[in-house]
Amino acid sequence: MSIPPVGGLTTPPVLPTLPGADAPAAAPATGQELAADFGAMLSGQISALQDLHTTSDQLARAAATGDLTDVHDYTIASTQAAVATELTVAVRNRAVEAFTEIMRMQI
User: Do the beta carbons of residue 88 and residue 49 sit within 8 Å?
Assistant: First the structure.
């Protein structure tokens, strides 16, 4: 049993379109290009993690010397650095597990 639309009007569903969907497809990237992109992305994320820790350390020093007016800033920066480190370690562990599993595969 189907329910008729109100007023007898039917409208087609609206489907989202991706930006550049009408643009012609680009040539697929080579393995070396993908590796370079991945390496650059990984390097950038490690640098961002280092920046989080540097900021947290600076705020910790400022809190210890009494120069920090709002201790919440240090708490937030410290928590951000800790969560980012936990995520990085979890991703690394998964990558090591995947590599180990691939190495165990028989050809």
Answer: yes
Res. 9: pLDDT tops 50: no
Structure tokens at 51: 């920046």
DSSP codes of every residue in 70-81 = -HHHHHHHHHHH
| 77-85, Cβ contacts within 8 angstroms, sequence gap of 24 or more | 77/52, 80/52, 80/56, 81/49, 81/52, 81/53, 81/55, 81/56, 84/48, 84/49, 84/52, 85/49, 85/53
**The token pair that represents 36 in the structure block:** 């370079």
Q: How many CB atoms lie within 10 A of CB 59?
A: 21
pLDDT at res. 12: 52
Candidates 77, 78, 91; CA nearest to 41 is 91
Q: Report d(CA 85, CA 91) in Å as an integer.
A: 10
Output the six-digit token pair for 16: 């989202």
Return the pLDDT at 19: 55
What is the reported pTM?
A: 0.64
